[in-house]
């Protein structure tokens, strides 16, 4: 199967299942559900759910759409918590960003209070969705992985340090912590979840976790670079927000060229992790996708 075909078919599968797990848009309270739908059903790249499915498919060595059905609650849960993180990230008291995915950000369209609640509701919806997994053992493992990834030890911890580090001279360890946690955590959850469903042995699970963390770190470094010299089309918003907010970013600490070198080195590390694994084509494609975002 061609790579483009793969991404199209898994994205279609994912979008159809998201429609099932979300409450209908006109569910009461209507404004809250509208805000959740607005943020979920738009132009997200669906990186985390597709990485999750692709990792699982590499591990089981088969490309059979039917076998993916039982994984879809976890694919949707990943995107729900990711979308919640973006809604809260854009709020005036955080990054104060007016645009997201090429559209007005959630709070611009629905107001701050509804945006805060939509983010909260998507995080709880994600946990509720994981309880729909058929195997109760898998459900508990999946909830444990996802809640850890979102928690103070994961994405929220990274976002908290991101906020308090603005307008300060960031040290390299702090910068590494912010990026690994705020972005790496949900990519790590994507491969960890795949390993739960594929019943993968510890050694491979650790390797794929390192792949995800390196990919996440590279992805965020590239995002920081794009925020300095990228375009609206690639970012889905006007660039320049990080420097306006005086954020701790890789380019602000290391400069653009060194940041680019760091991202490329991390992507080479990703390649070295998966290069000898069987059925690795789509994993390699993820590396290429991040590389191709570099301006
Ligand atoms: C945006 O994530 C936040 C970062 C980690 C840089 P994505 O670039 O995956 O955003 P969407 O989901 O495609 O909008
Ligand atoms: C946010 O990083 C990562 C999240 C966990 C939401 P950024 O603040 O750089 O993401 P963008 O640039 O707004 O997408
Ligand atoms: Mg931010
Ligand atoms: Mg932001
Ligand atoms: Mg950014």
Q: At the fourth CATH level, what is the homologous superfamily? A: Farnesyl Diphosphate Synthase
N- and C-termini, Cα separation: 29 Å
Q: What is the H/E order?
A: HHHHEEHHHHHHHHHHH
Give the class-level CATH name: Mainly Alpha
Strand content: under 5%
Computed Rg: 18 Å
Bound molecules: 3-methylbut-3-enyl trihydrogen diphosphate, magnesium ion
CATH topology: Farnesyl Diphosphate Synthase
Helix content: over 70%
Q: What's the domain count? A: 1
How many DSSP H or I helices?
15
Q: Look at the helices and sheets and give the structural class.
A: mainly alpha
What is the mean predicted local confidence, pLDDT? Answer: 96
**General shape:** globular
Counting DSSP E segments of at least 2 residues, the number of strands comes to: 2
Q: Give the name of the CATH architecture.
A: Orthogonal Bundle
Query: Which runs of at least 5 residues are low in confidence (pLDDT < 50)?
Result: none
Task: Give a quick account of the main beta sheet: strands, pairing sense, barrel closure.
Answer: 2 strands, antiparallel
Read across the widest sheet, the strand sequence of neighbours is 1-2
């Amino acid at each position: 199967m061609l790579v483009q075909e793969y991404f199209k078919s898994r994205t279609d599968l994912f979008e159809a299942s998201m429609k099932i797990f979300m409450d209908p848009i006109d569910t009461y309270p209507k404004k809250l559900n509208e805000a959740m739908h607005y943020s979920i059903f738009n132009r997200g790249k669906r990186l985390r759910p597709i990485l999750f499915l692709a990792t699982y498919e590499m591990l089981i060595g088969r490309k059979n759409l039917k076998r993916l059905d039982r994984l879809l609650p976890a694919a949707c849960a990943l995107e729900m918590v990711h979308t919640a993180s973006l809604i809260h990230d854009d709020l005036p008291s955080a990054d104060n960003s007016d645009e997201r995915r090429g559209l007005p950000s959630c709070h611009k369209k629905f107001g701050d209070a509804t945006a805060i609640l939509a983010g909260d509701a998507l995080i709880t919806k994600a946990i509720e969705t994981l309880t729909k997994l058929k195997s109760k053992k898998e459900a508990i493992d999946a909830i444990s992985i996802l809640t850890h990834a979102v928690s103070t030890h994961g994405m929220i911890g990274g976002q908290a340090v991101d906020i308090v580090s603005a307008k300060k001279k960031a040290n390299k360890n702090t910068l590494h912590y912010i990026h690994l946690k705020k972005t790496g955590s949900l990519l790590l959850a994507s491969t960890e979840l795949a390993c739960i469903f594929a019943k993968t042995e510890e050694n491979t699970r650790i390797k794929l976790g390192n792949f995800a963390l390196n990919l996440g770190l590279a992805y965020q470094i590239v995002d920081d670079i794009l925020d300095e010299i990228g375009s609206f089309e690639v970012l889905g918003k006007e660039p320049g927000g990080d420097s306006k907010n005086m954020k701790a970013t890789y380019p602000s600490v290391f400069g653009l060229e060194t940041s680019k070198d760091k991202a490329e080195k991390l992507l080479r590390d990703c390649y070295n992790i998966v290069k000898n694994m069987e059925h690795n084509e789509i994993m390699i494609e993820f590396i290429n996708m991040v590389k191709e975002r570099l301006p």
